[in-house]
Amino acid sequence: MKIIGITGGIGSGKSTVCRLFAEYGIAIYEADSRAKAVIAQNEALMLAIKKQFGENAYLPDGTYHRKYIADIVFQQPEKLAQLNALVHPAVRQDFIDWFAEKQINYSHTFVLKEAAILYEAGTDKDCDAVITVYAPKNIRIQRIIKRDDISIPEIRSRMQRQWADAKKMQKADFVIYNDGKHDLPSQVKTFMGKI
What we know:
Elements: E1 2-7, H1 14-22, E2 28-30, H2 31-41, H3 43-53, H4 66-73, H5 77-102, E3 110-114, E4 129-134, H6 137-147, H7 152-160, H8 165-171, E5 174-177, H9 184-194
Parallel strand pairs: 1-3, 1-4, 2-3, 4-5
């Protein structure tokens, strides 16, 4: 069974594209949501994060203190690298476990591994092929404004921390255009016919 990575910049519409694949019965590993679960449940990782960032990394009830960590890592790139060095291996192992389970009684020839920072984290190397979802920046910004309660400067800051669209598209094996000009379902159907 193949692992197909799916990535794209913030607001590109990866979730929308994944929902279309899910209609075909394709299993989807959502790395961002799984990372949140791993950070909240993996005791070894929780201890390592507390050791690196202090006891305030988790609230008294055991909840991950996202704002506290975000305030640290987004102002200090070396701290973000330290956090990623802890989280990425734990998420990679979580994916390995998930993939092993999917190989039992799963009728399709591939699964999707959705990750916003697939290339940046180096996990594209674990994939047999990669789909990049593309949308122009102005469309992405409008989508994020509707979806999230964050400012345009914060959106631009997040975009700058990800690879440029052109770089992702150049490395991709397949590009899905989510720009309002190309039909998404037909692009997904085309991919399904190629794999």
